[in-house]
Input
Amino acid sequence: MKFDQKEIGQGVLDLGIEKDAEINGIGMGVLSDGTPYLNQRGLAALCGVQNAHIGTISSQWNEADPKPRIQSIKAILSKIGLEFPAAHVEVPHNGVVHYCYPAEVCLAILEYYAFDAGANCQPEARDNFRILAGTKLREMIYSQVGYDPTGRNRFDKWHERLALNYQSAPRGFFSVFNEAETLIYEMIVAGAPVDEKNVIDISIGRHWSKFWDENGFNERFGDRNKFPHRYPDSHPQSKSNPQEAWCYPLDSLGAYREWLQDHYIGGGKFRAYITEKAKKGAITPSIAQLTITAIETPQISGY
Output
C-alpha cells in the first residue's frame, strides 16, 4: 500500500491532531484521520537513541542515494506492503508544529534498532519491539489517549447535549438545536465530528435569527422567546452555563424547515461552514467533502 504524498507528506495542510498525550515521557496521539503516531522524542525513547538520530532519519528519507539505514527501514515497510513518502507528518496543533511518526513507520524504525543496526542495536529497542510488534503499538496509543477507532463513541457528545436540552424549549416553541437532529445525525454518519469544535446549530441559529428579523417574522408568527441552553461538562462552553438561546413559535416551524432546505443548505451556508472548519483543521478535507455531499444530495431521486 502506497501512502499518498498529500495524505502523509503534506499532513500540515490536511490533518489535525484528534487526541494526544504524554505517557512516561512518550509523546503520542491520533491524527484526525485516525492514524496513531508517536512524536520524535517519544520514538527516540522507545528506540533507546538520541532524538537527533530520529530527526536524521526524517531528513535522509528521500535522498537520491539513500543511506543503508534508510534502505533497511524502507525494506521493513516494503515487506508488509507499505510505502511512505516521508517518515513523519508535520501537523500544527495549539500554535506548535508537531512531528508525528505514523505507527507503522515507528515499528519499522524500532525493528531496525532492535535487530538490524549492527553495533548500534539497542537493548531498549529490542525489548520494546517484542512488546509492541504487530498491532500492539497501535492499540497501546489508542488506549492511552482514549481514542475509539471503531467509531462506537462518535455519537456520545451529541447525545450528551440532547440529554440536557431535549425538553428545554417552553411549550408552544421549538429550538434550532432540537430541529437540527436529522442534519446532525447525517453529519455524524458521514464521518464529521460533532463535538465542542463543531457546533453546527450555532451557525444555523445565527443565520435563521438574521432571516427572521429581515423578514419581520415577529409580526407574522408572534414574538420569539429565550430559553436556557446547557452544554455538557465535556464541552468548554459549559463554563458559561446556562446560555440563553432563541426559541421560535411552533407556527413558524414550516417556514424554518423551508428556510433550512432552501437557504441554509441550498444557498451554500452549510457548505461554507464545513469548508471553514476544514480550513481550521477541525474536519479533514476528505470528510468535509463527504459531509457536504451527504447533506446537499436530494434524499428522493428526481427532486
